[in-house]
Amino acid sequence: MDFAAIISSQYLASLEMLKQTITRCPESIWNSPADKTKFWHIAYHALFYTHLYLQDTEKDFTPWRLHRPEYQFLGQLPWPPHAAPKIGEPYDKETVLDYLAFCQQQVAERAPRLNLEAESGFSWLPFNKPELQIYNIRHLQQHTGELMERLGTRAGIELDWVSMKHG
């Protein structure tokens, strides 16, 4: 069984579903003042952690070229004094889609090279590397589902399920 190929396929399928939500999201929902957590911010958050947890360790992580400090956090910062993140100008769709394409490339490059015998590489996640990847795909898909629900209930937009995707 080629676990790396399976992981890669499921990451790419999940990213393809997130891509649908981003491309089909109306501007009125993208940065709606009525939303506590904006659509674009959830999409960015999901991509940031997809990117992060594909790395061997936290130390090996290099933020994406257009990353803005604290934009990856949806709630309070994880360190004292646990303030709210400083979120200013929103990312536009094209920029988030650029990050998504970068994450697709990261999957293609990183998934085949994962050391499946290693620990997660992240002190706050006491998993081994295979469980980290399943955890990460679940995280990505949970937020994708959240965005799909917004599109469905607010704009009647239905999106396709992607079962697998090979790079």
Explain this structure:
The protein is an all-alpha fold and 167 residues long. The protein has five helices and no strands.
Q: Kindly provide the radius of gyration, computed on alpha-carbon positions and rounded to a whole number of angstroms.
A: 16 Å
Tell me the fraction of residues in β-strands, as a range. Answer: under 5%
**String of helices and strands:** HHHHH
| Beta strand count | 0
The count of helical stretches stands at 5
Helix content: 40-55%
Distance between the termini: 18 Å
Shape: globular
The CATH H-level homologous superfamily: dinb family like domain
Q: What is the fold-level CATH name, i.e. the topology? A: Four Helix Bundle (Hemerythrin (Met), subunit A)
Low-confidence stretches: none
CATH architecture: Up-down Bundle
- What's the structural domain tally? 1
Biggest pleated sheet: none
- The CATH top-level class label: Mainly Alpha
Structural class: mainly alpha
List the main descriptive attributes of the protein structure presented here:
single chain; 167 residues; mainly alpha; Four Helix Bundle (Hemerythrin (Met), subunit A); globular
